[in-house]
Amino acid sequence: MALVVCDVGPRDGLQNEQRVLLPATRAELVERLSAAGLPRVEAVSFVNPDRVPQMAGAEEVVAAVSPREGTELSGLALNERGYDRLLATGLPRINFAFAATEGFSQRNVGSSLAKGVEKAERIYRRAREDGLRSTATVSVAFGCPFEGVVDPGRVVELSARAVEAGAEEVVLSDTIGVAVPRQVRDLVGRVCAFGVPAGFHGHNTRNTGFANALAAVEAGAEVLDASVGGLGGCPFAPRASGNVATEDLVYLLEGEGIETGVDLDALLRVAEWVEGIVGHELEGQLYRAGGFPPR
């Protein structure tokens, strides 16, 4: 399996923006990212719009997007109602997330860690039965805003349970951007031993996101999450700033000789467009500095 760069901008990126975009605009963002050659785009989140109004109208977004060969669309769900909604849209992949700590589970989804993991296991089994591809994302895998440092052994155990239940890949999320490369190499390497693709979802909060992404690849990661322009964060995690910027990550990977299949010039134009629709400068740097050498 080649390295998959998954752009989570339409979901994880926009959910932390003050401006609420119409479903049609969010669908256009998905279309633009697909046209730039992203192999996967996390298009929507099936969550309660009262809690995350930026994600309202997920079904409308999916209905407005024309599938493009070479780009897989996915959606995030946090509970069984969200899974049912996603299943009805026909999306081919579900990303079902659960927390690695009690505190974040209570704050993010309103249930205990134990119940959250049991719920996730049921969803992975259902996805297998329903013919959906499934991603297990372990939130706050490296550090929690409410409990501090997270025991790597616990993350490995939770990841193993997800795989046993049927999850086809496991993505470790540095939700608040506290990890360093040594930790990422260790934890990603341990998850790779389960025999399914491992991935890394990094935030650049403490300026280690790009180093961590490379460390993940060195350890065997096959999936890297990033967000166009560096949009994003988590509304339920204090001081969780933007994701690693997709275009900056692609520039880095390609400079390292790692093929991504992404049209970097097209992606830079998407970032410039996003800046206009959200109404402020983005965290990413490449869309302002430009690629090198200039083309």
Overview of this protein structure:
There is one protein chain. With 295 residues, the protein is of the alpha/beta class. Helix content is 43%, strand content 16%. It contains 12 helices and 10 strands. It has helices spanning 9-13, 23-35, 58-64, 80-89, 102-109, 113-130, 152-165, 181-192, 209-218, 246-255, 264-278, 286-289; strands at 4-7, 40-46, 72-77, 93-99, 133-139, 143-144, 148-149, 169-173, 198-201, 223-226. Strands 1-2-3-4-5-8-9-10 form an 8-stranded parallel beta barrel, surrounded by 9 helices. A two-stranded antiparallel ribbon has the order 6-7. The longest helix has 18 residues, at 113-130.
Overall 3D shape = globular
Give the total of beta strands: 10
Low-confidence stretches: none
Largest sheet: 8 strands, parallel, barrel
By secondary-structure content and strand pairing, the structural class works out as alpha/beta
DSSP helix fraction: 40-55%
Please compute the radius of gyration using only Cα atoms.
Answer: 17 Å
Give the spatial strand order of the biggest sheet: 1-2-3-4-5-8-9-10
For the termini, the CA-CA separation is: 30 Å
The average pLDDT value, as a whole number, equals 95
Percentage of residues in DSSP E strands: 15-25%
